[in-house]
Amino acid sequence: MPKSSHKSNSVTSVQSKAGSRVLRLNVGFLLKEGVGYSREFTFDEPFVQVADDLTVHNLAGSVTLTRTPQGLYAQGRLTGTVDNECARCLDHYEQPVSVRLAELYHYPPESAPPDSLTISDDVHLDLTPVVREDFILSIPMHALCRPDCKGLCPQCGANWNEGPCDCRDEAIDPRLAPLARLLKPTDDDDKEAPDK
């Protein structure tokens, strides 16, 4: 649980909690403060189950919550890594992810505009939905374990990042067979041209 403090612009270190609750902050003390009061929450978690479809390792960063007439304004940056599969070699690797927060959370929730972010009646601000969405969006569609990944051999499936395989690319599209014959050496090619 965050430590309470009555100093403006102070820093709170978020302690470990199970699952995504690490991103659910008790902000009751902030809502009692005047407009302009702020508090920074820092995160340093080795493992966070953000949602059923997203587990983040090494979650780090900070979020500053500032009291506004509408509720609380959240601003900050969080980073981490997720286990991902390379699109070329299919190896698993740690994919860096990040999110920049700049969101207004309304309180009380019943006075919030439609489709806006709100603080629950039990005065908890849940960063989970926004963080989950932005982390997922920061994962590349064509993710690679490294920029120069060589991929897999299409014949034997060997990982070319670990070294070459013994396969020879002899499969030729039948439509290109006539061109392939032109590239084959002939007996004439083996004869050395006479010296001039």
What would a concise description of this structure say?
The protein has four helices and eight strands.
Question: How would you describe the overall organization of this protein?
Answer:
It is a single chain. This protein has 196 residues and is mostly beta strands. The chain folds into 2 domains: 10-137, no CATH class; 160-190, no CATH class. The protein has helices spanning 28-31, 128-137, 177-183, 187-190, and strands at 10-13, 24-26, 38-51, 54-67, 71-85, 92-106, 117-118, 124-126. The strands form 2 sheets. A 6-stranded mixed beta sheet has the order 1-3-4-5-6-7. A two-stranded antiparallel ribbon has the order 2-8. The chain is 13% helix and 36% strand. It starts with 9 loop residues before the first strand and ends in a 6-residue tail after the last helix.
Secondary structure: elements and pairs:
Blueprint lengths: L9 E4 L10 E3 L1 H4 L6 E14 L2 E14 L3 E15 L6 E15 L10 E2 L5 E3 L1 H10 L39 H7 L3 H4 L6
Parallel strand pairs: 1-3, 6-7
Antiparallel strand pairs: 2-8, 3-4, 4-5, 5-6
What key attributes describe this structure?
196 residues; mainly beta; 2 domains; two-stranded antiparallel ribbon; 4 helices; elongated; disordered N terminus
Low-confidence stretches: 1-8
Largest sheet: 6 strands, mixed
Q: Would you count the extended β strands for me?
A: 8
Topology pattern, helix = H, strand = E: EEHEEEEEEHHH
Rg calculated over all Cα atoms: 28 Å
Q: In angstroms, what separates the terminal alpha carbons?
A: 92 Å
Structural class: mainly beta
Number of domains: 2
Total helical segments: 4
Which shape, going by the Cα principal axes?
A: elongated
Beta fraction? 35-45%
- Fraction of residues in helix: 10-25%
Strand order of the largest sheet: 1-3-4-5-6-7
